């Protein structure tokens, strides 16, 4: 069994610390003697490394990092015989939680000793892969602002919280036209519109509690605009599996939609912000990726 571990050296608490990276390498060798490990050097590098591994017949590529690193790694593996495995080392760890992976690195490595292979759907936003969630609306706008501030060194949870709090009181929903699975066009002005392959953003915040990575569909969740007090009271319900008070969300299952909004559209894929013009295509590719689930 040939395994490649791809590690983002700046994910989680590593922050480029060589001692911590060496400790990670030791833990990998302890659990998987002879496995290869590569460090990512720039955005997109994980995709390149994963694609090379698939071409060279590796059994699986294990992405160690947050949702961004996992997304990049998956791009190199879709449609190949090489599986994707995940060791969480980010902040929210949305996909890792969805797969049932322990959040402790040592435990996660141990649980991959006897993995359970499964076929996983992937989403596409204007052709670009997402594994967990894509969306337009307030959270995409916050993600874009956070990225822009990050260019000036503003990172971490506190700047993100400040941006989110400010945006929550100033955000004005955009009017969107949607054509879903060839049906008649409809018009929405949501606070946010989420296309969920998995159930959660991370940290157990479940935006789509009934979504499945293996059902061949996406859950389209519309979060309606509402008074701020009602949104605040409803927030705790998103950490439960089913309870959704106040009728703030509407969910339908889809395979394809085209979103039209004249001008600039800000959206995100697995938390990474993007921009496009005038229209956005969302679709699902059923069973496009082999994933490793942890042993029971």
What is the compact description of this entry?
With 296 residues, the protein is an alpha+beta fold.
Poorly predicted runs: none
Determine the fraction of residues in helical runs and give it as a percent range.
25-40%
- Number of separate helices: 8
Q: Structural class, please?
A: alpha+beta
Distinctive features:
single chain, 296 residues, alpha+beta, 10-stranded antiparallel beta sheet, 8 helices, 27% helix, globular
Protein architecture, described:
The structure is a single chain. With 296 residues, the protein is α+β, with helices and mostly antiparallel strands. Helix content is 27%, strand content 34%. It has helices spanning 18-31, 45-55, 67-75, 94-98, 105-111, 138-150, 157-170, 228-234; strands at 3-7, 36-39, 60-65, 83-88, 116-125, 128-130, 133-137, 176-180, 186-188, 192-196, 218-223, 249-254, 256-269, 272-293. The strands form two sheets. Strands 5, 6, 7, 8, 9, 10, 11, 12, 13 and 14 form a ten-stranded antiparallel sheet that branches. Strands 2-1-3-4 form a four-stranded parallel sheet, with helices on both faces. Helix 1 links the parallel strand 1 and strand 2. Helix 1 packs parallel to helix 5 and helix 6 (138-150) packs across helix 7. It is globular, with a radius of gyration of 19 Å. The protein starts with a strand and ends with a strand. The mean pLDDT is 88.
What layout of secondary structure does this protein have?
Blueprint lengths: L2 E5 L10 H14 L4 E4 L5 H11 L4 E6 L1 H9 L7 E6 L5 H5 L6 H7 L4 E10 L2 E3 L2 E5 H13 L6 H14 L5 E5 L5 E3 L3 E5 L21 E6 L4 H7 L14 E6 L1 E14 L2 E22 L3
Parallel strand pairs: 1-2, 1-3, 3-4
Antiparallel strand pairs: 5-6, 5-14, 7-10, 7-13, 8-9, 8-13, 10-11, 11-12, 13-14
